[in-house]
Design a protein that fits this description.
The chain has about 450 residues and is of the alpha/beta class. The protein is about 40% helix and about 15% strand. The chain folds into two domains: about 1-170 and about 350-445, Glycogen Phosphorylase B (Rossmann fold), CATH 3.40.50; about 180-340, Rossmann fold (3-Layer(aba) Sandwich), CATH 3.40.50. The protein has helices at about 15-30, 70-80, 100-105, 130-145, 150-160, 205-215, 235-240, 255-265, 280-285, 300-305, 315-325, 330-340, 345-365, 405-410, 415-420, 430-445; strands at about 1-5, 35-40, 50, 55-60, 90-95, 110-115, 145-150, 165-170, 195-200, 225, 245-250, 270, 290-295, 310. Helix 4 (about 130-145) runs antiparallel to helix 15, helix 6 packs across helix 11 (about 315-325) and helix 9 (about 280-285) crosses helix 12 (about 330-340). About 45% of the residues are buried.
């Protein structure tokens, strides 16, 4: 099969869950004999590779803007796809890219959309941005041949809110071997001698809560914070203002071997993500055998199960830190639970599920119709409600069955698209930003 993967920053993976998924799944699809093309983002103008782990890379420009970067690159990528030989299946990542689905389907390219998490809940998308994301979710439901969810909580949301099924395909957990800790020497750290946070600096990842709780604790170990985020200066300033001299901010760590050892040698790992699905950072911590504490939300409980301890407030963080250091041996024995939990998440199984999905898209058995994209108004379940164990989860018995999709009807359907376009002028884009976005798209079409 010829498979295209688009909507992300691309590979090599240096940023988030989508990129990690594409690298792990795409390379395995190549090993299985498929032709895989990945669309990559270039905001620096420098030279970029054209081949990586057997995947063909197409690098295209994007507007450097919090809102326009993803949309501009996806617009250019879709323009490139539709002017080349038609692929057998397309995997579009991020429901925010749903407005570009009609262009793919007008060329009879079957497409599955990975819907990501509940992005509209993020503070950075308040107001018009939140409306855009909610409208884009509806368009993804309406125009995708299949929807991909990486967590049961996300699958439940789309079932309850839109009455549609999703393909539940979680991420994998890499197994990280624990070395002798020599890599940590350059950072002045010792094995099992620090608490760790690895996160993009966004309010929904609750780095501020963990830092505040740590400062309240009686910890004798430093807190090491890895991460940052573009367009997040205000939040970064807020987090650092809460810290004391025992908190060490390393910024982003791009050396994967060093990052792996930071996970593997941590006394505890702290995970504050709240609105995503199955998070790769959390899975990496489990695969490294790190005793892990997670924010008490449905997605983290789903992944951690009995291997995790959970917190809601800064006081909870302080109490867990103090209790963990008071019985260090018990805390370190939790490593076994983390590793056992990681065994439930295997990238080979994930890639096999994607391959099966792509076969279904290519042969027409994975085509849906009749989804209006209208919300049913059923709220997502309580954040703390337990979900089934990954190895026992099955699709909901009342989920609608897949059916053939009328691609021709999409090209003429502009009603749903207007829901999105109505919000685009309100997304804090200047006239220059919009001009850049338009020119990038024009160049891509001409290049085709």
């Amino acid at each position: 099969m010829r498979i295209v993967m688009l909507g992300t920053r691309g590979v090599p993976a240096r940023y988030g869950g989508f990129e990690t998924c594409i690298e792990e799944v795409g390379s395995r699809l190549v090993e299985a004999g498929h032709d895989v093309t990945v669309y990559c983002r270039n905001t620096t103008g420098g030279a970029m590779p054209t081949l990586y782990k057997g995947m063909d890379l197409v690098t295209l420009p994007a507007v450097s803007h919090k809102v326009a970067e993803t949309l501009s690159h996806s617009a250019v990528s879709v323009g490139h796809v539709i002017t080349r030989r038609r692929p057998d299946a397309a995997l579009l990542f991020n429901a925010a890219n749903a407005p570009f689905l009609p262009a793919l389907r007008a060329r009879w390219i079957p497409v599955a959309t990975h819907v990501d998490g509940l992005e509209w809940k993020r503070a950075k998308w308040s107001g018009a941005g939140q409306k855009y994301y909610r409208a884009a979710e509806s368009l993804a439901v309406r125009w995708s041949d299949a929807l991909i969810a990486d967590a049961q909580g996300i699958a439940d949301y789309y079932r309850d809110e839109f009455g549609v099924p999703t393909e539940l395909i979680r991420y994998g957990a890499p197994r990280v071997a624990r070395g002798d800790g020599s890599e940590l020497a350059e950072l002045g750290l010792t094995p099992r001698g620090y608490h760790l946070v690895v996160a993009r600096f966004e309010p929904e990842n609750h780095v501020h809560l963990i830092v505040e709780g740590y400062v309240r604790s009686r910890s004798t170990l430093p807190l090491v914070v890895v991460g940052g985020a573009p367009y997040a200066d205000a939040y970064t300033t807020q987090v650092k203002a809460l810290a004391n001299d025992r908190v060490r901010f390393l910024g982003p760590v791009w050396d994967q071997d060093l990052l792996d050892q930071l996970y593997a040698q941590a006394f505890t790992y702290w995970h504050g993500h709240s609105v995503g699905g199955t998070n790769p950072s959390l899975l990496r911590a489990l695969g490294a055998g790190a005793p892990t504490n997670g924010l008490d939300v449905i997605f983290n409980r789903e992944v951690l199960g009995s291997a995790g301890q959970f917190f809601t407030t800064a006081a909870d963080v302080a109490a867990l830190i103090d209790a963990g250091e008071a019985d260090a041996q018990l805390t370190l024995r939790r490593s076994v639970l983390s590793e056992a939990r990681a065994d439930l998440y295997d990238w080979d199984d994930v890639a096999e599920s994607y391959e099966k999905l792509c076969h279904g898209l290519a042969n027409g058995t994975h085509r849906r119709s009749g989804a209006s994209g209208r919300r049913r108004g059923v709220a997502i379940r309580s954040n703390t409600e337990a979900t089934p164990d990954p190895v026992r989860t099955q699709a909901p018995a009342d989920a609608p069955a897949a059916a053939d999709t009328d691609h021709g009807a999409v090209a003429a359907d502009t009603t749903a698209a207007s829901q999105v376009s109505a919000h685009l002028p309100d997304l804090s884009l200047t006239d220059a930003d919009l001009a850049d976005l338009a020119s990038v798209g024009d160049r891509a079409v001409r290049a085709g």
